[in-house]
Amino acid sequence: MARFGVIGAGAIGSTIACRLAAAGEEVVLFARGPRRAAVERDGLRVRIGDTVQAARPAVAESGAAIACDTLFLAVKADALPALLHAIVAARHAGTSIVPLCNGLPWWYRQADGAPGGAIEAVDPGGRLAAAIDPASVVGAVLFLRAALDADGMVESQGGERMVIGAVAGGDDALPGIATALEGAGIACPVAPSIRQVLWSKIALNLATNPLSAVSRATLAQMCDDDRLLGIVRAILAETLALAALDGQAPRESVDDLVAITRRAGPFLTSMAQDAIAGRPLELAAIAQAVLDLAGDHVHPMPVARAVAAMAAWLHPPRAAAA
User: Fold this and answer.
1) Strand pairing partners for 28?
2) What is the model's pTM?
3) For residue 11, what are the contacts with CB-CB under 8 A and spacing of at least 6?
4) Given CB 3.0 to 4.6 Å as the disulfide criterion, which of 120, 123, 168, 250 pairs with 134?
5) pLDDT of the chain along its 322 residues, tens only?
6) Domain boundaries, the chain
7) Is 243 helix (H, G, I), strand (E, B) or coil?
8) Contacts 24+ apart (CB under 8 A), 260-265
9) CATH classification (class only), 3-192
């Protein structure tokens, strides 16, 4: 049986680990601190409405040398460089590495098995790009709306879906990963061009996350208020134009992406949740990496830049605020 590893025990990692373990897959959840202790004591629980799924995967300290066949990275993009040692410890020569991060990923410029330029905003100095063979990376675009409650329960909105695809030609593992996720109740289509699918999520994240940190509006409120909706539509248009310049235009239009946002309902984005809780915002991956790419293409994105700047000013890093 293949062993699945999940680094990160927040809402995303806990959901993936719980679903797979409940479906009978061998799962190791790598966590640390109080969250690790809580999962060891109580197991994992994911609730959708009145239905609760529970599972008890194996739990290990992040950095433990337990080799996994598929390794999901369910942490924020800016945490990955510091977790490189944990990634290395949990892999073997044939491990498929599946990052589940928002924004522009470190592997975006890597193709055909040859390292490309680093995405400096999310991979300072190119450490991840240098250490992880792009042929071992499975690109993933995750559509999952969930949050951890005070008791450690994951509150999910359902409709869990993960689109996967090869980053640099290594596609042999894709069918097995897709089959396991589908068997666990997570829809998992395989995309011929994962970068095109990625741009739909990048556009949605950039259009809604920084704005939610500024306004504290839910996704439904952004669509229902003409003032906020105008900002969302402007950022979507700017981002889709950038994707086209980069040769990766997604199939969805601005109207399509607005419709997706509207269907999400009264849900606070992860960045809004972080802003309310006083946690650091994931602006490097969601905003800065995209804006840096826009600079490379000499593509102005004035609305996206303005909203990201407001979010950064309102919620500075704690060290800078002290």
Assistant:
1) 5, 58
2) 0.91
3) 146, 147, 148, 154, 155, 156
4) 168
5) 799 999 999 999 999 999 999 999 999 999 999 999 999 999 999 999 889 999 999 999 999 999 999 999 999 998 999 999 999 999 999 999 999 999 999 999 887 544 457 789 999 999 999 999 999 999 999 998 888 888 889 998 888 999 999 998 778 899 999 999 999 999 999 999 999 999 999 999 999 999 999 999 999 999 999 999 999 999 999 999 999 999 999 999 999 999 999 988 888 898 999 999 898 999 999 999 999 999 999 999 999 999 999 999 998 876 433 3
6) 3-192, 196-313
7) helix
8) 260/204, 261/204, 261/207, 261/208, 261/219, 261/222, 261/223, 261/232, 262/219, 262/220, 262/223, 264/145, 264/157, 264/219, 264/220, 265/157, 265/218, 265/219, 265/220
9) alpha beta
- Dig out the tokens for 83 from the structure: 């977790």
Pick among 1.10.1040.10, 1.10.260.40, 3.20.20.450, 3.30.465.10: CATH of 196-313? 1.10.1040.10
Give the ranges where the chain is alpha helix by DSSP (H).
Answer: 11-22, 33-42, 84-89, 127-131, 174-183, 194-215, 219-224, 226-245, 254-264, 270-277, 283, 289-296, 302-314, 318-321
Q: What angle do CA 233, 239, 240 make, to 5 degrees?
A: 90
Tell me if 166 sits within 8 A of 173, measured CB to CB. no
